[in-house]
Specification:
This protein is α+β, with helices and mostly antiparallel strands. 28% of the residues lie in helices and 23% in strands. It has 14 helices and 26 strands. A 7-stranded antiparallel β-sheet has the order 17-16-15-14-18-19-20, covered by helices on one side. Helix 6 packs antiparallel against helix 10 and helix 7 runs antiparallel to helix 9. The chain starts with a helix and ends with a strand.
Length: 666
């Protein structure tokens, strides 16, 4: 579109005034003189326009001019010929809102910008989704020096449209001098990488770990224009660790700009020295581990059959010492007690590492903590490592136990060692705790032995971030094992110095840093109020007139309840019955009250009744329950009301102003 003559002359005048204000003409003359005297050979008498432009770009004059000039696009609404349309196959329910970020001018920041992806060939032949149809998405998760970020989800495609930027603060861990702005030399000594995890979410909401990559960011310290572009090739995980997933185009830039950059040779030399130092430490630890294993087998040749994990593969197929997967993790006020920590770990999903092919074989894959948290599910080893780290953060002496459970299935769990020698087992998948009371096989038969309640059968070794101990007792059965870890005749320890050389923070550059836990973005009070409101509306819509009715309750069940001590005094029983199927599905005990649920498989009509010594009292009848989650919510609500021995709140919430019905005898 051509500008009118008056607009063009006005624009030229503005540009001329700005260039005169910046004194660009004198700077161009200086560059021209320097180029003629310094860069041109004596036989050349003319300077081409291309040579002059290269000299201006090299000295940054063009960039300075473009930064000073600002162009404002003024467009009325009537002049807009078209409006941008959202993607027909993916709509972000919560579009990102651009917000201003408070930047400390005394700190240094690394701006990591993802400019897009290429060569995700797995999605090359996928058909184009229909308008409004949900599709699988990609999400990037980043961690750098206790800072976690998450990109907005983008549709899976051969060239996914990643367009996110992340502002990472670069600082020292120490106080005092560590709070000052860092120069290039100081930042060169910070060896923490940027951990990038790619998560794929399918249409059903299931997450899958697609790739995990450690980005070396210090190449930006030697960039001429203080910024550099990097093409990152993402590889698969597990059995596909050597297969390319795709390529990310990433731009790295420092803010504020570095006053002085380092040479590329200095950066390359520093990185090479770090890799050499890490390789030497790993080699020495491997030599020590082999010698330690030979000594362990000399104690008893049968030790060769025990389950021992000195090294474990992560999601990238890299062998790392198992002690490096555990570290004291302090979460502040996010989790108040160790039992809350166990509950938190247990609600994370359990999924074994996928294996290509059939059979009962298990893929060896211990995920890093960031990959486990971002995927929100993992194997029993991932749960045990996280729970042990949290318990260590609470000050407990915790260890990860490696052994077997029923039918010889390999399993890991957590053990805490009390001051008085008490041993407690923590099952990370369920949050249950078990007290270990060892059986003494040498005692006479008349002495009653404790019956173990835990599901564990054998134990081979225990470890945490500082210790690794192997079980060298004659039997590895958990029931008869002694857990006096200070007795070297029963537990053979590894050298603490050897473990510290490869597992302590900052010991090697190969260890991924531990990410912090983040608070939930869900408002618990608001979600509770919304759930209560939905239950109230649903119950009111589906309630029916209150009428006494005869319930088809199995006589054996009633006789059992009448003869049970549970119905003594004012204690009562909450029962959910179905007209179609009176069979019991589940039973739950809460305090003095028992909750029975009948016939959930043939859901048509339900009624809530109170069972006491006097008989049955009809409370509510409802039908057409939409899902079992709503039904369980009603059951919990009714059970809470029974705990306070009143039906007023139940009648108010579930049935509006309807009065509580009369009692009907059975």
């Amino acid at each position: 579109m051509a500008l009118p003559l008056e607009k063009a002359s006005e624009l030229k005048q503005i540009i001329h005034q700005q260039l005169s204000k910046m004194d660009v003409h004198s700077r161009i003359r200086e560059v021209l003189a320097e180029t003629i005297h310094e860069e041109l050979a004596p036989q050349h008498q003319q300077l081409s326009e291309e040579d002059l432009m290269k000299a201006l770009i090299r000295r940054g004059i063009i960039d300075d001019v473009m930064k000073k000039l600002s162009f404002v696009k003024d467009m009325n609404e009537g002049e807009m010929t078209s409006t941008p349309k959202p993607s027909t196959h993916f709509v972000d329910s919560q579009p990102a809102v651009l917000k201003k970020t408070n930047i400390d001018p005394t700190r240094r920041y690394l701006y990591l910008q993802v400019l897009g992806g290429k060569a995700f060939l797995e999605h090359l032949q996928e058909p184009e989704p229909l308008p409004g149809q949900t599709c699988p998405t990609f999400t990037l998760c980043l961690h750098f020096r206790n800072q976690r970020f998450r990109s907005k989800p983008v549709p899976c495609a051969c060239e996914p449209d990643f367009s996110d930027g992340f502002l990472l603060e670069v600082h020292k861990d120490s106080l005092g001098e560590g709070s000052k702005m860092l120069d290039a030399t100081t930042m060169l000594s910070i060896c923490d990488p940027v951990h990038i995890v790619l998560i794929k979410t399918d249409t059903s909401g299931e997450t899958m770990l697609a790739a995990s990559y450690f980005l070396e960011w210090r190449s930006v310290l030697s960039a001429e224009n203080r910024a550099t572009n990097v093409a990152v090739e993402l590889l698969g995980v597990g059995t596909e660790a050597k297969v390319s997933v795709g390529v990310l185009n990433i731009k790295l830039e420092m803010y504020p700009k570095l006053n002085k950059t380092l040479s590329q040779e200095i950066v390359s030399t520093q990185l090479a020295l770090e890799r050499q130092k890490t390789a030497e430490k790993e080699r020495l630890f491997l030599v020590y581990a082999k010698q330690w294993w030979r000594e362990y087998l000399q104690i008893r040749p049968s030790h060769n059959t025990r389950l021992m994990k000195i090294f474990a593969q992560d999601e990238n197929g890299v062998n790392r010492p198992t002690c490096s997967y555990v570290k004291p993790l302090r979460v502040g006020r996010l989790l108040d007690t160790p039992r809350q920590a166990a509950r938190f770990v247990s609600v994370l999903g359990y999924e074994r590492a996928p294996v290509i092919g059939g059979g009962n074989s298990k893929q060896e894959q211990w995920c890093t903590l960031l990959a486990f948290l971002c995927r929100n599910k993992g194997d029993c080893e991932d749960h045990a490592n996280l729970l042990c780290s949290l318990l260590l953060g609470f000050g407990l002496e915790a260890f990860v136990c490696v052994g077997t459970k029923g039918k010889g299935v390999p399993h890991t769990w957590v053990m805490t060692y009390g001051i008085d020698g008490a041993v407690t087992f923590w099952e990370s998948l369920t949050g249950h705790r078990y007290i270990h009371n060892p059986i003494k096989p040498d005692d006479p038969p008349v002495i009653e032995q404790p019956k173990p309640l835990y599901p564990y059968r054998t134990i081979g070794c225990v470890f945490n971030h500082q210790k690794f101990l192997a079980n060298c007792q004659p039997s590895d059965v958990v029931e008869i094992c002694s857990f006096d870890l200070h007795d070297e005749s029963k537990w053979k320890p590894m050298s603490g110095e050897a473990i510290k050389s490869v597992c302590s923070p900052g010991a090697t550059t190969a260890l991924p840093p531990f990410p912090p836990l983040c608070a939930s973005a869900v408002d618990a009070a608001g979600a509770s109020n919304e759930l209560e409101l939905q239950l109230r509306i649903l119950a009111v819509e589906h309630r029916k007139p209150w009428q006494p009715m005869n319930l088809n309750v199995p006589q054996a069940f009633l006789l059992e309840m009448k003869s049970s001590k549970m119905l003594s005094g004012e204690q009562c029983l909450m029962v959910i019955l179905s007209k179609d199927s009176p069979s019991t599905l589940c039973t739950e005990m809460q305090g003095d009250h028992l909750l029975h649920v009948f016939g959930l498989h043939s859901v048509r009509k339900y009624c809530v009744v109170e069972v006491t010594k006097c008989g049955l009292q009809f409370v509510l009848e409802f039908s057409h329950i939409l899902n079992l989650r709503v039904l369980s919510g009603l059951c919990l609500l009714a059970n809470t009301v029974l705990y306070f021995k009143t039906f007023t709140l139940l009648a108010e919430i579930l049935c509006g102003d309807t009065e509580v019905p009369l009692r009907s005898e059975v």
